[in-house]
Amino acid sequence: FGTWKSNFIIHIKNGNLWKNQNFNKISELKLDIMAILCSLVKDEQYSCSKAEDDFATKLLMQEIETGSMRYIEYCLSYLRNRKVHLCKNEKALQSILRYIQISERIQYNMAAIFASACKFKVCGLKFVAALLYKSYGAAILLSGVSYNGVPLPVHLKECLSNGNYFFFINFGSLFSLIYFYRIKCLKDIRPFIIKKLIPTILQIISAPDNYVRKLLKAEACEALAYCIEDDPELQYMVHWNQLILQTFNQCNSLSFIKNKDVEAIAAHIGSLKCISSIIGGNENIRRRVLGQIVDMDAYLLQMLTLEECPDDLKLAVYRCLLSMSRSVEQLRTIVQAPNTKFVDVISSLLCNLVLEFSPLQSVILEYDFLATVCEWLHDDSHNLRLNAAWILMNMSYRADVELKNSIVQALPPLNILYMLTEDKSEALVVSRILGLLRNLLAEANFTDELMSNHAATIIEIFLEVLRGRFEECCQEQVLYALANTATGVEARKQLLKNDAIFEMISKFINHCNAELQIASVRCVHNLLMPRLVYYYEIFHVYIIYDLFSIQGDVIGDAVLLDRILQKFNIVKHLKEVRSHDIANVLLVGDKSSFYWIVSHCIVM
């Protein structure tokens, strides 16, 4: 066999294999030779130069027109195995197509040859789509690219011509045109999107499953979702079509998740993204679409409870829940659901949706959702209590005065004080509630307003946590809340009159936890700044002494030491204080502490 192989290769190189008259006269010998050549090209070790490939291809294309059916099958098999690309040879393609009805083997070989020819175009379109995705610079550049005098966008539009809806090659064109549209660098593309592209996508989605696989339908749904995401007119146009809802409603159970049905999961992801885009902008559309899906919220929340639920599907579910939650009516249904497990999940989602940049905040306030969240703080479910505390803390972060007043009205400081003594109050819940108080006190003007009405209760909360057996994370929150309180003008005055507050600050300055020490330093710093007439009142000797007598590993902490030196530059003004105040400093401890203060803070 090795000798035969060598001889065939030599004959091909010399160009004599097919020119031999004896070979041309004996068709059976030609069949045998083609059978052997087809076997040779299947061998991974077989190699041929480009010149030999070109010569063999040209010669075989001529032989196809004169050979028998079996001979044609061998020729096509050789071309298929050599992965010859005939996309530029129109005559060759036309001659091959004439034999497509002869046999299934010929059809198989021809399909492989055409698929190989199309792969270059598919890869090219995918490459273009990847370049265009959210890249304005690439879109501007590619919008001016031409091939044979025809602009690239025109080529992409031609790929969506009639009769070619369901070829895989169209998806690269679909995504590319959608990316062009979303970036808004083509002025005349919108009519094409409305009249051609969206109908094409809908036709792909409506095709029978035996003609278009679910994976391709899922891609079509995702393309449509991205296309209409920020366009109310397109959302309105698409929402009348029932195809997306039909795709979603095909599965009435969640067995496809447990069975890891890849196609069904992809179909759900695509349809969920599409539904969330359709209902994301208009309340009337949202009500009409959701009215056609029975218990959709419960169905989605069930998905999230499954451990097997893949991340991509969870992301699509969260995205859809976000669009649904923009509806006051839908939100009311979810938060009043009798199933605690669902409420736990949706409350976890709300923790992130109530931040100051979320569009959901205004909806929650309109619905008077704060009362419901405050009720959750006393629920039997630990997860629900924790999520409620998270929601309130996140909602208060950088909140405006109106929202802060609403929170204080729903959860007064006195209620927070009562919660500290409840049996259900775990460290995590208390820490988040104290984080809420810290956020409420983060702005000086509102701090003064809040302290004018609730000073006694708030100071009692501070002392209750700092004196009690609370976790260090809770005490750290209180120290920072205390530091925030000191930024208010009137609030600072009330703190300065409370000796117990200074005792607690002094206590935590000497704490073994460096984080608590730093928080205590922040308290002292905010009490010192800005320096008012009565600033020296807070220079109780024990605070200064405790602060600067920190020894051992703690003082070796570069971060803490830098914080102390940076924040206590104000101590240099001690030389302006009356002499007996400085004398009081000398009376505490040894003189080395005072000299340490002088060397690091006064002499600068």
UniProtKB/TrEMBL annotation:
Coiled coil segments of this chain: none
Gene3D superfamilies listed in its UniProt record: Leucine-rich Repeat Variant
Record-linked SUPFAM superfamilies: ARM repeat (SSF48371)
Keywords recorded for this protein, A-Z: Cytoplasm, Nucleus, Repeat
Gene Ontology biological-process annotations: proteasome-mediated ubiquitin-dependent protein catabolic process
Superkingdom of source: Eukaryota
GO cellular component, one term: cytoplasm
Cross-referenced InterPro entries: ARM-like, ARM-type_fold, ARMC8/Vid28
Subcellular locations according to the entry: Cytoplasm; Nucleus
Major localization class: cytoplasm
Name used for this protein in its record: Armadillo repeat-containing protein 8
Organism name: Trichinella nelsoni
